[in-house]
Amino acid sequence: MMDVVHQQQSVSQRIIAGVIGGLVGGVVFGMMMAMMGMLPMIASMVGSSSAVVGFLIHMVISAIIGTGFGLFLGGQSTDLRQGLLWGLGYGFLWWILGPLVLMPLMMGMGVQFGAAFTPPMLMSLVGHLVYGAITGIGCAWYLHGRSR
Questions:
Q1: Distances 120 to 31, 60, 92, 142 between C-alpha atoms, Å
Q2: Average pLDDT over residues 93-98
Q3: pLDDT category, 9, cuts 50, 70, 90?
Q4: pLDDT for the residue numbered 103
Q5: pLDDT tens digit string along 113-141?
Q6: Using an 8 Å Cβ cutoff, are 90 and 61 in contact?
Q7: Who's near 71: CB < 8 A, 6+ residues apart?
Q8: Which of 10, 20, 8, 144 is nearest to 77 (CA)?
Q9: How far apart are CA 37 and CA 51, in angstroms?
Q10: What CA–CA distances, in Å, run from 117 to 51, 67, 77, 125, 126?
Q11: How far apart are CA 65 and CA 85, in angstroms?
């Protein structure tokens, strides 16, 4: 019984850590997107052109993706360095899944692998790597590095 409680707590701690890391990473990535004028495109996924709506959608997505990091990679991120490395990989994965696959499909455009090395997509890659790095470091800090 104690192992189940400990495991449950561990999962809940990883979820909290992932959400925190994802939100912090989302704020930084969202600022980058705002500077590039990309938030209205995010808003277009729900039929809006508002940068505020785009930022709110982006933050919800950031929290959800951060939750995934906490669940699946939080246990691997045993220190800040590991959090950074796993986070960079996770950011790269979401660069492929997000702007190259899922978002274009949601907008009726089909996958965009052919556009992967265009300047806007390379800037998106940088943003996703920054998001992943911050998410991973934030998650590792929450789980292992902060004072209790």
A1: 16, 22, 15, 33
A2: 97
A3: low
A4: 87
A5: 999 999 999 999 999 999 999 999 999 99
A6: no
A7: 11, 14, 15, 18
A8: 144
A9: 8
A10: 25, 28, 30, 9, 12
A11: 16
The sign one gets for the Cα dihedral 118, 132, 93, 64 is: negative
**Average model confidence (pLDDT) for the chain?**
92
Tokens of 109: 């455009």
| pLDDT score at 3 | 53
What single letter denotes the amino acid at residue 77? S
pLDDT above 90 for 4: no
Residues 104 and 74: their CA atoms lie apart, in Å, by 29
3-state DSSP helix/strand/coil percent for the chain, to nearest 5? 80, 0, 20
Specify whether the CB–CB gap between 103 and 144 falls below 8 A: no
